[in-house]
Amino acid sequence: MSGENRKLRSQEWWNRTDYYSYSRRAWLRSEGFVADAFDGKPVIGICNSWSELNNCNVHLRAVAEAVKRGVWTAGGFPLEFPTISLGEMFMRPTAMMFRNLMAMDVEESIRANPIDAVVLLCGCDKTTPAQLMGAASADIPAIVVPGGPMLSGQWRDRKLGAGTDGRKLFDLFRAGKLTEEEWSEVEGGIARSAGHCTVMGTASTMTSLAEALGMTLPGCANIPAVDSRRYTMAELSGRRAVEMAREDLRPSRILNREAFDNAITVDMAIGGSTNAVVHLIAIAGRLGIELPLEKFDEISRRTPCIANVKPSGEYLMEDFFQAGGVTAVIRDILPLLQGDALTVNGRTLAENVADAECFRREVILPTSQPLYPEGGTIVLRGNLAPDGAVLKQTAASPELLKHRGPAYVFESHEQMHREIDRDDLPVTPETVLVLKNAGPKGGPGFPEWGQIPMPRVLLKQGVKDVVRISDARMSGTSFGTVVLHIAPESAIGGPLAAVQTGDPIELNVPNRSLSLLVPADQIEKRLAERKSEPAHFERGYGRLFIENVLQANEGCDFGFLRKAAPSPS
Ligand code: FES
């Protein structure tokens, strides 16, 4: 049964003749609703990750009001509810540690309540994958409305991309080439409004991929946070959520294998964040879909990177939006996509982009003249990463993509911070910087420490990049020849744990390999003699995390959440 006649899930809560149904209606009327406000209407939950502790999502209460207008207009009944929010800038030890907690919050908040469809309001890095993971598991109709990126940063006459330019300017400041006063001006101008970061970092990648997955209305992903069209789109999404409730259009019908292939392809075409690999694997895992790392590499090899946006390219998200955004990218690479994939508006991906245009060809390049002939992220294997590692080749230095050099090892993040600015640090442009104990369990929480800062001694020589390898993640706004997500991680005895300062390491991107050039028996001996560190947490969520988090190549979800076991509806 579908449409107006379908029995709505919410009616089980208050359209019965028993006492509890009466009391639920009474308690809802305590909010001041008239008696028939929710009678027979689809209840649309507005799942809000607003928080003043998350500047990127701080405007989402206003976005929610626009969604509500749409829901009322379409004959639905909106109810907004909060979840935890994950502010990338503030959370310790790292927002990533709480992505799964937020996904559980989203899933259970949806499932436990009288909701017929849900509008997911997200933005900052982890909030989008967390909501998609939770909504995929709850599997009631869901539509994503991201908050959109900030206005472009500005310092004097320069446009600045959050993260990307901030790090470059900070290196100048560390090298004594910017004054305190100038650095303070940068701080005041780099983040000029609500919204998520202004480059193709994790937030813009994941919101763009939400559109590629078919989970937003077309054209929704990249509208800036403070643009009036962000609110128009939110209202339209609210209207559509009411129809989706009536149609019972669930995530499980949209998020299929074809949708994930599309998302990976778009990720490569936009030069998306390396974090997208982990998040897409985790979201797919909620639906019982396996995404092996080889799938990313296979798609990367056949997909040109056409988004000329930082950190891979030149422009910012505001420019990308003006150029047509991810909708125009999807249109341009449609031959590489499964165009018949279903989306939240009930139409196919190909139908949605049929009229999409690119308005700034210097920002979204033609596929015949891409920024890079291959996709942004590639997968490496080898005796240092038996279960894989990733590298964003579009943000790396071309001359370092084939490199052999001696390791300089930091056993911990603390050691790295103590030593990185030492004037006598024994490193050269050939050195491979190695950071251990920064993975999902070792960090803990899989922190974004992978872009090991350039040693000051090298910055002073004018060296801007060296090969850096770790089991950490890095911010999607970062750049450099940085190998990440090495699995298994060093804290559980992965081969990275065996590396010693001076060992030769070889990175060979064309061959997709990462090798420790030390005899196998030596590596085994070192690993056998290694002492394991005590667990970071003895109780609470931290303990739950350490005991259950999967490795990077498995998406870092909790194993017990990935199982596609049926849950009570
Ligand atoms: Fe929130 Fe960058 S800090 S998106």
Keywords:
4-stranded parallel beta sheet, Rossmann fold, globular, 8-stranded mixed beta sheet, 569 residues, alpha/beta, 21 helices
Q: What does this entry look like structurally?
A:
It is a single chain. The chain has 569 residues and is of the alpha/beta class. The chain has three domains: 41-151 and 193-353, Rossmann fold, CATH 3.40.50.360; 154-189, no CATH class; 377-533, IlvD/EDD C-terminal domain-like (Glucose Oxidase, domain 1, 3-Layer(bba) Sandwich). 35% of the residues lie in helices and 13% in strands. It is built from 21 helices and 14 strands. It has helices at 11-14, 19-29, 60-73, 99-112, 127-138, 164-174, 180-189, 202-212, 228-247, 251-254, 257-269, 275-285, 293-302, 317-323, 325-332, 349-352, 413-419, 456-459, 520-529, 540-548, 559-562, and strands spanning 43-48, 77-82, 117-122, 142-146, 153-155, 158-160, 377-382, 385-392, 402-410, 432-435, 467-470, 482-484, 504-508, 513-516. An eight-stranded mixed β-sheet has the order 7-8-12-11-10-9-13-14. It has a four-stranded parallel β-sheet with strand order 2-1-3-4, sandwiched between helices. Strand 13 (504-508) and strand 14 form a beta hairpin. Helix 5 (127-138) runs parallel beside helix 12, helix 11 packs antiparallel against helix 12 and helix 11 (257-269) crosses helix 13. The longest helix is centred in the middle third of the chain and has 20 residues, at 228-247.
